[in-house]
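Hey team,

Filing this mostly as a record. A colleague (T.K.) asked me to run one chain through the structure pipeline before their review meeting, and I want the input and output archived in the tracker in case anyone asks later how it was produced. No errors, nothing strange. Just documentation.

Input sequence:
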Amino acid sequence: MYGVDKDADPRDAERSTLARYRTPDGDPTLTEL
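Output structure:
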């Protein structure tokens, strides 16, 4: 999940990582990394 400065042009906006998740194969549960 990324955060983006909504005042900047979306194509040029800097993004920062807010959270990372993975979904193991065959398991619909999200696991935070």
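Quick notes for T.K.: The mean pLDDT is 86. The CA atoms of residues 25 and 31 lie 12 Å apart.
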